[in-house]
TrEMBL record:
Protein name: Poly(3-hydroxybutyrate) depolymerase
UniProt cross-references to InterPro entries, sorted A to Z: AB_hydrolase_fold, PHA/PHB_synthase, PHB_depo_C, PHB_depoly_PhaZ
Highest taxon of source: Bacteria
Segments forming domain PHB de-polymerase C-terminal: 202-403
The species this protein was found in: Methylobacterium haplocladii
Matching Pfam families: PHB_depo_C
Length: 404
């Protein structure tokens, strides 16, 4: 019922966008007449209509060039390998000097991996960057099987093996957990491709520490409540028909509800930018919400297992995590240097939750550890924006290079 209702809402939003385009075109001839002010209001309203609804296709990364040294170098997106659920995407640069290979683990949490384009752009001048480019679960046929917590770990291991020895991990938010798990699995197996370093940024390693509203929601209901109320079945109009998912529109709705006033104000501001002709300011708001409202569905197995493992049972925090039925021990991590990064004002992953990884990886000597608390930033400021680029990233770059 939930997915059918949302499909109907999507159809309505498509019609609204079409009417917005028609009304905006109708206002255009009046923009140079004595009725210009009225036309601006008319056009602003029409343009707001044109932005109705969500999108379900991955936006472009839009990284065509990057400055390396003192020259502009073209960047080419290259699909290195792929599974039904993800592509290992490389941002290839044609340069002669070898650079550290860095695998960016993007969260599988309702948004496409393009949410990290700013992170990737900052990393690119100094690193050979790869990313886990997740596919929308509603577009994955049911015949391709399930995707759970262990499958994410499998993807990390497989992608690191594909990249080869000497690679580095950088996990943003949720996959800090899978980064630790995959590294421990590879350490136990003495896998030669285990990463040289692992940077965990604003990740929920131990959610018992200073619980946020997100953490409290996860513990306020039994797991059966999440299965009953938040999961839905993909309808017949999509390639993944019959697959159980946690819909991306549910995740985004929850994030918006957390900061409803801020999002409402942003759209009011956007309307006035249109009216006043502030094109640059309008584009900044549009760019943010173009990305924010591009959503993907999560496989139901992955969502439920993550809620249970990370947010309810605290399995990783207790060092009781298992993989394919076998226990794994974070103390087996001895060859992978560890850096953790947190944001002072993070209201999603509180200060201390990521730093807890150091207690788990107790076999690492002091010279293979680092921690940074970035002042003045919330969750997204840990991996994007001015402070990330000018204050946090130089520390991350030096950490990776020192263990390369």
């Amino acid at each position: 019922m939930m997915y059918r209702a949302f499909d109907a809402q999507t159809d309505l939003a498509r019609q609204t966008r079409g009417w917005g385009q028609f009304l905006n075109a109708a206002a255009s001839p009046w923009s140079g007449t004595p009725f210009r002010e009225q036309a601006n209001w008319w056009s602003a309203g029409a343009r707001m209509m044109m932005r109705s609804g969500l999108t379900f296709a991955r936006p472009d990364y839009g990284i065509g060039t990057v400055t390396v040294g003192n020259r502009e170098v073209p960047v080419v997106e290259e699909a290195v390998t792929a599974t039904p659920f993800a592509t290992l995407l490389r941002f290839r640069k044609d340069i002669e000097t070898p650079q550290p290979k860095v695998l960016v683990l993007a969260p599988l949490s309702g948004h496409f991996s393009t949410l990290l384009r700013g992170t990737v752009r900052t990393l690119l001048p100094d690193n050979d960057v790869y990313i886990t480019d997740w596919h929308n679960a509603r577009d994955v046929p049911l015949a391709d099987g399930a995707f759970g917590f262990d499958d994410y770990v499998d993807h990390v291991v497989r992608f690191l093996e594909t990249m080869g020895e000497g690679s580095h991990l950088l996990a943003v938010c949720q996959p800090a957990v899978q980064a630790l798990a995959a590294t421990a699995v590879m350490a136990h197996a003495k896998n030669p491709a285990q990463p040289r370093s692992m940077t965990l940024m604003a990740g929920p390693v131990d959610c018992r520490i200073s619980p946020t509203s997100v953490n409290e929601l996860a513990t306020s209901k039994p797991i059966a409540w999440f299965e009953k109320n938040l999961l839905s079945t993909v309808t017949a109009r999509h390639k993944g028909a019959g697959r159980r998912v946690y819909p991306g529109f549910m995740q985004v709705s929850a994030f918006i509800a957390m900061n409803a006033q801020r999002h409402s104000q942003a759209h009011q501001d956007l309307f006035w930018h249109y009216v006043r002709g502030d094109a640059d300011k309008a584009r900044a708001v549009e760019s943010f919400y173009d990305e924010y409202f591009a959503v993907l569905d999560l496989p139901a197995e992955f969502y439920i297992e993550t809620v249970r493992t990370v947010f309810q049972d605290y399995t990783l925090a207790k060092n009781e995590l298992s993989y394919r039925g076998n226990p794994i021990d974070m103390r087996e991590i001895r060859r992978t240097a560890l850096m953790t990064v947190e944001g002072e004002r993070d209201d999603i992953c509180a200060v201390g939750q990521t730093m807890a990884a150091h207690d788990l990886c107790s076999s690492l000597p002091p010279h293979m550890r680092s921690h940074h608390l970035q002042a003045g930033v919330g969750h997204y400021g840990v991996f994007s924006g001015r402070r990330w680029e000018t204050q946090t990233y130089p520390l991350v770059r030096n950490f990776i290079q020192s263990h390369a």
